[in-house]
User: Fold this.
Amino acid sequence: MDRLPTRVRIVEVGPRDGLQNEQQPISTEVKVQLIERLARAGLRTIEAGSFVNPKWVPQMAGSDEVFRAMKRQDEVSYAALTPNLKGAERALEVGASELAIFAAASEAFSQKNINCSIDESLQRFTPVMDVARKAGVPVRGYVSCVVGCPYEGEVDPSLVARVSRQLLELGCYEISLGDTIGVGTPASVNVMLDAVAKEVPIDQLAVHLHDTYGQAIANIYASLLRGIRVIDSSVAGLGGCPYAKGASGNVATEDVVYLLNGLGIEHGIDLTKLVETGQFITQALGRSNGSRVGNAMAGSSV
Ligand code: HMG
Ligand code: MG
Assistant:
């Protein structure tokens, strides 16, 4: 496959992956405003929070409140990250439109992040799938450490393929491949995608690339050429994983949209509104904007 797609879906993970690593308190009001602004900018899938053990990720402890407080748009899917049945029940109670479960392609990362082995995590997801099915709510699956692991180093692509297939067999509608520590390059991402595409149809795969080494845009371009049509990203490049030391934020949504505009690929997002949203959240957090495009456009007061 060496043709670019005509349309791409962006999954905005800023309110969850972006904010989960922030140490400072962030009010529900700011989280809600962020989500509502993203929806107004045209994002149609927004991961709005996570329902994990609040002792593990204190910043997400108020996700119930966020889901209750936000004004929703009919056409937007508000996703919730859920590690187990308890998380799924909490998320469904506050009306999450979809759930996301998360496994890893590295045993060490699985232990550090969710306190169990890869196989145990997959077993924990079975009751999550059951309650989601009963509630008529779709479930997305993440695989972390698809290229490298902060504890184990290089990750075998065949393991990524196996975990991806298992998540698909559990009933996930889409598998998002996470370069959690952002170490991939187009070469390693292509090798990994080749392995996974043998097990999971390419149109059910997404890429979720952290930008630690500045390779995410190059990796997205390589993924688009391989047939990937779904990209996860985080406004202003916010984020990181608390259990992957040194990992920076996801690729910035503004940078992805700019790339897609240049390639003539449709996405449905208003870049000016998105840049304003990036400015809003970085000012609210008192931190610098991780989006090159956001900084360039804000600097030229577009
Ligand atoms: P555990 O301590 O083994 O859980 O944690 P447990 O089942 O033994 O329960 C211990 C206590 O936690 C109990 O309370 C449970 O009720 C409570 P106690 O009896 O002590 O009072 N508990 C919960 N409370 C609220 N909501 C829940 C929940 N579950 C248990 N859902 C667990 C296991 C999985 C819960 C824990 O390890 C955890 O929460 N981990 C989450 C870590 C996390 O959120 N990491 C970041 C997200 S993943 C990521 O960023 C990667 C991604 O972006 C993709 C990529 O970039 O690669 C997705
Ligand atoms: Mg992530």
